[in-house]
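User: what does the whole thing look like in 3D?
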Amino acid sequence: MKKVILILLFALISASLIIAYSEVGKDFTMMHSRTGKFYLENNRNDHNVPNAVTSIVTIYRGYDTVGEVTVLFLAVLGVMMLASSIGLNRMDSSLDIAGFVLGHASIVLFPLIALFGIYIIVNGHLSPGGGFQGGAVIGSGMLMMFLSGERKELKMDVTHLIESISVILVLLIGMLGIYYVNSFMANFLEMRGTFGSILSGGLIPVIYILVGIKVTVEFFHLAEYLLRS
Amino acid sequence: MENIIGYLVFSSGAVLLIGGIMIALFSKNIIKMIIGFTIAESGVNVILLTSGYIHGREAPIMGRMINSASYVDPLPQALVLTSIVIGLAVTALFMFYAYRFYKNHGTLNRDSREEAND
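Assistant: Here's the predicted 3D structure for the full assembly of 347 residues, as structure tokens:
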């Protein structure tokens, strides 16, 4: 009985995908959606940044980004609660089995990885990249340091404080948008800068740097709690 | 047929979605279920991205050309960016549940749960 229901479910999904396939296939040669066209036409004049995806993520759909950051935080909160129910223990030296190559290469590689991540975060409004991607790069570098056993002990209170402050600043910027131009997460800073330089785009790099800090710390927390429980 | 890339990418996304759901439903091992969910999620992302694809246009990074007609739709790309981050967070939570399950029951087989509780 169970199998029959599952097979029917698969048939339903496959049929809907085939219908969607034929519908979307017609649209491959068509124009943008109206929303996407609006974003593309107004991006240069509104924010003076090249990367349209960044201005959508941070400003036009900043509300989505706040929700996304909240979901990420909730996942880390769930991991933390489960970890505390199991009980945290100190990181023992059992991870020293990493070996000579990983242990020594990670010391050389981690600064380069962190620098690359910072580059991605800071250039988020000029080239493909941004806070989430750069934060993921730096977080992966931190995971490599954990696995190599060469990690420094970071104070968890300080990292939690950094995370909270960055989120509060993002929300505060959103609220100031309501105060100045009557819309949440608006680009109310009038300094648009010269097109294509790092200091351009008003609030977009500020928001993305804050998001990058937050995502980096979230990754650090995930790895820390998973390894310590 | 000039849109062959779009059709190929869309159909591979559909295959990933259905295959991932099948793996997640039919496997007994929890780690394999998590892998199935991750594959299905990649399929959804590919399908979403394809919905904004327009043949012969560039990525929406507006360097030389100001004309909006020379770029693909940026909206699905922004949505997929959100989706990827959320998928990562959910996968981390899944992995932690699997770890806790293993610690409590000594196995990763989902069918042995009732026996271990008795």
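In plain terms: Helices of chain B lie at 4-26, 30-51, 75-105, 113-117. Chain B has a mean pLDDT of 83.
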